[in-house]
Design brief:
about 375 residues; alpha+beta; Pdz3 Domain; 2 domains; 4-stranded antiparallel sheet; 12 helices
Length: about 375
């Protein structure tokens, strides 16, 4: 179940989402021992022992790979959360009521990873795997690891089709009400809470399984590649990339470029565990953005970043570094789709100055 709208997107049958899991850690207990005395009347002497270091469980190759992907997705969601929650007013028609958490079963992954997901703690019951920071779910104390029992007093489906069935159950409920009654199992007992719905940007946030340094938006989703995540040096830089694609979606740029179908196909491919790498050659059919359109997305993105509490001061330096490292001649990289670097940098510097002036006077940070 997704972090934003808790529904399955296109390409679900070919790809599953990742979320954070809590890994069990094995600890070895150690006790103090006594050394017998050497003569009569000699008092026993306590000999302290050093507790062994915790022994990490041995992971299978599938568990190791899944754990790595989970870590990337977890960071992506953590950075995206403030952008989604704090920018409903800027996302225009793309804002809606959300529950604000992800939930998964062991069947949320392709068959080769089901056993690995089970070993990492998932079962056939939907379990909370992430809570959107700042959401109603976070405010009422929903926790990672909680297992979903009932929604509005109706049993939550279990098994291989639990996500889809639960999404169908939730769909009609999030419209026309302010909260959802949810019962979860936690530490052997059930707890019931009313989760306030959160008005937020309803874009799906996806991890792309490629080392290409790239990101995409198809009108309803944002995809950030693992290569791009590794290129960013901190959360502020990653927020710039996520917000830029959110801005493209908000401004309906994929549709205006007549690239929606192409971008949807690219994203559907890259969210697979094993993407078709042949399809990644060149620009994958994606049209370069005109510089004016691209700069408009940069401006809106910077406001989104600032409203989410991230720094915008070094935005121009980041985009310059990206363009220098992956110039437009690298057709499978970011700059090939966003080639107007000089024009963009000028617009970015102006937008940053405007934002800083508003922040300095405590004015509303709005474009």
């Amino acid at each position: 179940m997704r972090l934003t709208n808790l529904t399955r997107g296109a390409g679900w049958q070919g790809a599953k989402r990742y979320a954070a899991l809590t890994l069990p850690v094995l600890f070895l207990a150690a006790c103090a021992t006594q050394e017998p005395g050497t003569g009569a009347g000699t008092a026993p002497r306590t000999v302290p022992t050093v507790s062994p270091k915790p022994v990490a469980p041995t992971l299978s190759p599938q568990q190791t790979e899944l754990k790595s992907l989970i870590g990337l997705q977890d960071r992506l969601y953590d950075v995206a959360a403030p952008l989604l929650v704090n920018n409903a007013v800027l996302c225009r028609n793309n804002a809606r009521n959300l529950l604000g958490f992800t939930a998964k079963t062991k069947y949320s992954y392709t068959p080769e990873f089901v056993d690995a997901a089970a070993a990492l703690g998932l079962s056939d019951q939907l379990q909370v795997t992430g809570v959107l920071a700042g959401s109603g779910a976070a405010k009422v104390g929903l926790q990672r690891g909680d297992r979903l029992v009932t929604i509005q007093d109706k049993p939550v489906p279990t098994g291989a089709d639990a996500e889809r069935q639960t999404a169908l159950l939730l769909g009609p409920l999030v419209n026309g009400r302010n909260s959802i009654k949810l019962t979860v199992a936690r530490k052997g007992s059930n707890q019931t809470m009313n989760i306030p719905l959160t008005r937020a940007c309803a874009f799906g946030i996806e991890l792309g399984n490629t080392e290409n340094v790239i990101s995409y938006a198809d009108g309803r989703r944002v995809l950030i590649s693992s290569g791009m995540m590794k290129f960013t040096k901190n959360d502020d830089e990653l927020a710039l990339v996520i917000a830029k694609e959110m801005a493209h979606n908000t401004l309906t740029h994929p549709a205006r470029q007549r690239s929606t179908a192409t971008l949807t196909g690219v994203i559907d491919n890259l969210i697979r565990l094993r993407p078709d790498t042949a399809a990644l050659n060149g620009m994958a059919g994606v049209k370069p953005y005109p510089q004016q359109m691209d700069a408009a997305a940069d401006k809106l993105a910077l406001y989104m970043v600032a409203r989410a509490g991230y720094k915008v001061d070094d935005a121009a330096a980041f985009w310059q570094r990206l363009a220098t490292s992956y110039p437009a001649s690298a057709l499978n990289g970011y700059t090939a789709i966003h080639p107007g670097t000089d024009y963009r940098l000028s617009a970015i510097q102006k937008a940053v100055s405007d934002i800083q002036a508003k922040q300095a006077t405590n004015a509303a940070v709005l474009p």
